[in-house]
Amino acid sequence: MTALEEQQALDREFHAVLEQLETAAGTPLVSGEMERWLQEFTAALAAAQPALIRRIQVSHAPQLKEIRREDPEMMRNADCVQREDAWIAETIQGLLARADVLQPMVARIEPDEKRAETALVELGEQAVQLVARARKQEIALRTWLQEAFTRDRGVVD
């Protein structure tokens, strides 16, 4: 497999897991099905985590290095992208931990699910926010990388 084919495969995987997570998080909670919803949501999170980490390490890290090398004046932008990558990695880990904590609680309170509904809705909303920020991160990184190579720096001696 060529480097380009490998990158394309990583891109497809990344976008597929984001879509899967967004779908799981956006699926409405149905009475009597909260435990299954949480299981499917947790599975989507678990699938997304390694893809997000791989994206940060395999794609973002070299691109950030390239931005810094090509245009040192864009260091601040690269640092912002790097901080957002860290937030994304920490947030998905936190969402997985919260889902694991909620799993036994949801299983225990099946007849009185309303007690868990607020926590599950918040968990889903945070996951949707994570997906949105991950997608925005891709656009920001592409923009700063392109800018690093094409920005007019004025007259250079």
How do the SSEs run, as a string of H and E? Answer: HHHH
Mean pLDDT: 91
Distance between the termini: 43 Å
The helix content is: over 70%
The number of helical segments is 4
Q: Which segments are poorly predicted (pLDDT under 50) over 5 or more consecutive residues?
A: none
Shape field: elongated
Task: Give the number of DSSP strands.
Answer: 0
Biggest sheet statistics: none
Radius of gyration: 19 Å
Strand content: under 5%
By secondary-structure content and strand pairing, the structural class works out as mainly alpha
Mind explaining what this structure looks like?
There is one protein chain. Helix content is 84%, strand content 0%. With 157 residues, it is mainly alpha-helical. Helix 1 packs antiparallel against helix 2 and helix 1 runs antiparallel to helix 4. The relative contact order is 0.15.
What can be said about this structure in brief?
With 157 residues, the protein is mainly alpha-helical. The protein is built from 4 helices and no strands.
